[in-house]
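Is nicotinamide-adenine-dinucleotide placement plausible here? Inputs below.
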Amino acid sequence: MSRALAHEDVIIRCGRRSGLPLIVAVHSRALGPAVGGCRLRRYDTWQHALADALRLSEAMTYKAAVAGLGFGGGKSVIALDHDTVLTPQLRKSALEDLGELIASFQGSYRTGPDVGTGPEDMVVLRRFSPYAYCAPEEHGGTGDSGGPTATGVLAALRAGARHVFGDASCTGRTVVISGFGSVGSGIAAGLATEGARVVVSDVEASRKEAALASGYGWVEPDRALSAPADILVPAAVGGVLDDVTVPQITARLVVGPANNQLTEERVADVLAERGIVWVPDYVAGAGGIVYTLSRESANHSHEAAQKRVEGIGDTVTRILDLALSTGTTPLRTARRIAERRLASSASQAQAV
Ligand SMILES: NC(=O)c1ccc[n+]([C@@H]2O[C@H](COP(=O)([O-])OP(=O)(O)OC[C@H]3O[C@@H](n4cnc5c(N)ncnc54)[C@H](O)[C@@H]3O)[C@@H](O)[C@H]2O)c1
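Reply from A.M.:
I modeled the complex. Tokens:
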């Protein structure tokens, strides 16, 4: 056997209504119940879906630990092949299958939207248990987490700007945002308000009109990473930072919500060697989960939850200062902070 299973639970089931492969992976509950979104997408095989669930649930453990949450890491996946047509009925059946599976965890695994699912899908899951967050407000949830995620990225970005440029203000700075979706558009609006020169990019050509109408600049997606910028914000997809793209980056600060931005962990060293400060994605992108759990699990007010999200700025300052003083990368520093918390056992887990 090559390596011990790092996960506490991995359940693979063929949905009895949908016939689709369902996976729930719980990486760790050392700090509390596992939490992580529900992904519904196409994979070459269900084994690829399993690999995705294992990787993503582990990342959730680190995300929650660095954010100071009393939660562990998990993920669920509904795997579609390339031929199956996802009719509304099949979608409903698959969500019902997953709802039943999540209910069997009795709260020790909790979910929310992820790639391919949204707030409305959480309404279906909630028919089986209360452990599906971000349902629309009229169904008792807090809805799409894109806004709080953008707030958290802005806090991380300001902390990063203070570290790199000696000034948290982005007034007059050029910020390129790759991905003008739910989170990217929130970041753009926040930066434009404070006088930054915002340039956005998206593979959806229709987003260009919206960007120009808002007064932003536009760059085609294949040039977004190399476009002249002080700050680069990856807000689209993962796997964008590698040996080919990093040498093309002109920005001195890279900070954004896109999950798994690095193709490999060692790319963090390549960024550091080029003098680029990269804020780990799972630190910068934690605003949504921090807000949602504060509101829906700990019953905090909007204001208190928002304050907690803005605390991501302090976390980023701590990570960047520590990385500088110890001569290592922000990625290794963030990982050490998470590992120290995890090692200090569940008894010290702080409730959100
Ligand atoms: N929504 C959240 O609360 C949240 C939380 C944490 C992390 N994230 C991550 O942040 C990223 C953005 O999330 P979102 O909710 O805004 O998603 P979204 O789907 O609303 O927006 C993503 C946008 O990126 C565009 N895009 C896709 N590929 C692209 C490419 N190669 N170049 C440029 N644009 C491209 C899409 O057309 C879309 O407009 C994702 O990686 C997501 O996993 C989101």
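Short version: The pocket of nicotinamide-adenine-dinucleotide is lined by residues 145-146, 149, 178-184, 201-204, 207, 221, 235-237, 257-259, 285, 288 (CB under 6 Å).
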